[in-house]
Amino acid sequence: MPVDENALDCLFRDARTPSAWTEEPVADETLHTLYDLVRLGPTSGNCCPARFVFLTTQDAKDRLRPALSAGNVDKAMQAPVVAIVAHDPLFFEYFSRLNPEPDLRSWFATDVGLSEETAFRNGTLQGAYLTLAARALGLDALPMSGFDSTIVEDTFLAAEGWRANFLVCLGHGQPDETPRAARLPFDEACRLL
């Protein structure tokens, strides 16, 4: 059953990428609820490779600062939360709990190229779910590239061996009356075959 027009407005039509943040905090409980929604989104073979590190303290965000490109520093430092969207290259080690398909683990354990491609693709998909789930919970989301992944991995992900993909700043954006940037129309971006 389709969601109503209000939900479509919240998730897509009226949702905006913020350029500045209010000081309203994001509760830890909200981040738990956020992940509980994200984890329900589909991934191929239920592989669930995404891993998230939520930077909620000023100290954690200060440790991120050296990795950020100049244009992203203020946006990230002012956001209540910065989520590192990462993936676990060894996601297949969880298949005994996530997918009962016999020998599925061996497909990925013996093919590094396949496992990396699958982890990156599906981890990216789960990062997109994070953005939409945040909007559904009344948060604003600012996905960003423009950072040094090596610094992020060395600083925040090395212990687990996770790989950085992109960042998502989360919080409550300040109102912005700037017109929405253009999007490609159907005929330029799609083909019906």
Automatic annotation (TrEMBL):
One of its GO terms (molecular function) is oxidoreductase activity. It comes from the Bacteria. SUPFAM superfamilies: FMN-dependent nitroreductase-like (SSF55469). Residues 17-172 form the Nitroreductase domain. This is Putative malonic semialdehyde reductase RutE.
